[in-house]
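Need tokens for this chain, all 188 residues.
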Amino acid sequence: MENRWEYRVWQTRPEGVEAFARRLGTDAETHEDHVDFLVSTASFRSHVHLSSGHLRVEIMLDEQDGVAAWRGKLDDALPAAGTTIAEVVYPALGIATAALAEESYDAAALIDTLEDQPAIRHFSAQRQVDRFALDGATIEIVSLDLETGPLRGLGVMADDAKTVLAVAHRLGIQNQPNQGYPAALQRV
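Here are the structure tokens for all 188 residues:
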């Protein structure tokens, strides 16, 4: 899986920046789904999400000039093998690897298994993502309808940090804190 550099800002009402980004961007597409996020309270450098029948694990590898490099560590169809949970998901969330009772886990079973872990938080949301291209980067406008209320964000992603910073500057978000999904969800 390839590295992806990104800059994300989260607000409750980023409409001005969103409208500006939409005017500049091209090749728009929209995706809606239900997503479950699993994040560790001990670190903002990884997260697990379950959506559209898939288990995904993402790890932050590096930071450069305020831009984070992320890599997908896992993207498997559910149900996932117990060995995959023990060898990939648990370490990504900072959980000591343990023998698991089941051979495979669907989304509900995985969430149930992790509910007893005090350092793991579960967030369930309806998600809408609008993606479009701008100056060699992908822009994402994300709307999460969480149980605690809405969370909206704007992300700039590209293969290199320089492109991400240039587009973040163009959108005027470069002075806002860059927060990946784990940090933004922990604030809720």
